[in-house]
Write a structure and sequence with these properties.
Shape: globular
Oligomer: single chain
Strand content: under 5%
Strand order of the largest sheet: 2-3-1-4-5
Number of strands: 5
Number of helices: 24
Order of helices and strands: HHHHHHHHHHHHEHEHHEHEHHHEHHHHH
Radius of gyration: 23 Å
């Protein structure tokens, strides 16, 4: 119960005499609750702390990596650990961390220094070693070995927190081995391990955007636009949106390979603007039409201030703001950036749905919705209805990019996108996989796929799972017809 742990541990940190190590555990609970802001705040001065326990040091190193401080985290995990089991776990986590930033050859070298798991008696250390072995086997396309390692790790009967990620890994291995029955069984176990109390789902999440789906919050008014912002069509942020698992990360990396474009990798700029409206008591989107130019400028300042914390734009560079569900805030985007280009990614709803079910989403709300195929199908329909409604009110500067077309004829799609964005030369986009590999951390589940280049491996995958997908087709029928996909 990460939410309850978060509350108690944060309270403990504020008490007189609280050890620095307590902040680590509080930050772990915050990060597990998708509250990265508080987690970062709790450990921001970690370099000046007095010594902490070795176990807290292990967790701090992993946490720093999770929060984006890769160098600090690696240095912490590479430190001296007197306890042999903690030393083993630190090495395993370094392997996982290197794999996560696509430094697979370095991860493989570290893995060669690890003990044989049969020689490890501590269950936690053995599990983490097996997990490291499994994920490197996956990256080496040794899926049968990965399946064996994941299965052995799950046999250790560790807490749900670990079972969830292990089952998702096992499902991926089974999927690659074309064993759809075993994959679905692993996924069922993974989602069953999601034990998120209601209190946790009320915490600020990665997106915080699904709350905008409430029926009573549909936008029905009008907004004012300023003519002086018309010139921003070639300088404002480029919003890359779409349904979950619709190819947004792939297109993001293609765009980021262009020297004139910089990606923000799912940062919460739009969410910060929404939070400002909420703090001021401005009902969104109902009261959006009452806002004036001063409000627009304030919101723009909030947007770029948040952006500056993680991204530096060079001269003549434009931002690619990729956050798939940002389209739920389309009225706000159009108020603040009237001429901003919006690229909406499409993919066969059944492939998007299946891929969402296979993901270990950090966002508690999204994870809960995606814990059942029917739940995702219902969500997909609601998202489509919202997009149809809002895009009809704000139809300008929108380009649709179909995943299947991008895979089949990248040249043609690059030219379409280049024309839409005013880019003369789009040749750099062809080397997106190399640019993505050099980039390091990519904050989405597709981080390992986008460095492999274009392929059709995931296209039409849902047909192998027709036994599970077919019952959802009546629900999805309106969506399939709207987007022009066959069942």
């Amino acid at each position: 119960d990460f939410s309850a742990a978060r509350e108690h541990l944060c309270t403990a940190c504020a008490l007189p005499g609280a050890e620095h190590g307590m902040r680590v555990w509080a930050a772990v609970a915050c990060q597990a609750s998708a509250d990265d802001d508080t987690a970062s705040m709790l450990i921001q001065d970690w370099k000046s702390w007095s010594p902490i326990s070795e176990e807290a040091q292990l967790e701090l190193g992993w946490l720093l990596i999770q929060l984006g401080d890769t160098d600090g985290g690696h240095a912490m995990l590479a430190g001296e650990f007197q306890d042999a089991n903690l030393r083993t776990r630190a090495l395993a986590r370094r392997v996982l961390a290197l794999e996560r930033v696509n430094r697979v050859s370095e991860a493989r070298e570290l893995l060669s220094r690890m003990r044989n798991p049969t020689q490890i008696t501590d269950r936690q250390a053995r599990m983490e070693t097996l997990q490291a072995m499994a994920i490197i086997a996956t990256r080496s396309k040794e899926h049968a070995a990965a399946r064996e390692f994941y299965s052995e790790a799950l046999s250790l009967d560790l807490p749900l927190r670990y079972q969830r990620s292990l089952n998702f890994g096992l499902a991926r291995a089974c999927d690659q081995l074309d064993d759809s029955t075993a994959a679905m069984e692993a996924l069922s176990n993974a989602h069953r391990a999601l034990d998120v109390p209601e209190t946790a789902r009320t915490q600020r999440s990665d997106t915080g955007l699904l709350t905008l789906l409430d029926a009573q919050k549909a936008f029905s008014g009008s907004i004012t636009t300023a003519s002086e912002h018309a010139s921003e069509k070639t300088s404002s942020p480029i919003f890359l949106v779409g349904f979950p698992r619709s190819g947004t990360t792939l297109l993001e990396q293609m765009l980021a390979a262009h020297a004139a474009l910089v990606s923000s990798d799912e940062q919460p700029m739009v969410q910060r603007m929404l939070a400002d409206l909420a703090q001021r008591g401005t009902a969104y989107p109902q009261a959006l039409g009452s806002l004036v130019e001063a409000d627009r400028e304030r919101l723009r300042e909030i947007y770029f201030k948040e952006l500056a914390q993680t991204v530096t734009l060079g001269a003549s560079q434009r931002l690619v703001d990729k956050q798939p569900l940002n389209f739920l805030a389309l009225p706000l985007i159009r108020f603040v950036f009237p001429e901003a280009p919006i690229i909406f990614c499409q993919r066969h709803p059944c492939d998007s749905l299946l891929s969402s079910y296979m993901q270990n989403f950090r966002d508690p709300t999204l994870a809960k919705v995606c814990s059942s195929l029917q739940g995702i199908a219902d969500l997909y329909v609601r998202l489509t209805e919202r997009w149809i409604s809002d895009s009809a009110k704000f139809p300008s500067s929108i380009l649709y990019c179909r995943y299947e077309d991008l895979i089949a004829d990248a040249d043609r799609q690059f030219r379409r996108i280049g024309d839409f964005l005013g880019l003369d030369d789009v040749s750099a986009m062809h080397d997106f996989d190399k640019a993505a590999a050099a980039r390091g951390f990519i904050g989405t589940p597709s981080y390992s796929q986008v460095v492999e280049g274009l392929n059709t491996d995931a296209q039409g995958r849902w047909k192998r799972y027709s036994e599970y997908i077919d019952p959802l087709l009546p629900t999805l029928k309106p969506v399939l017809e709207h987007w022009g996909y066959d069942a």
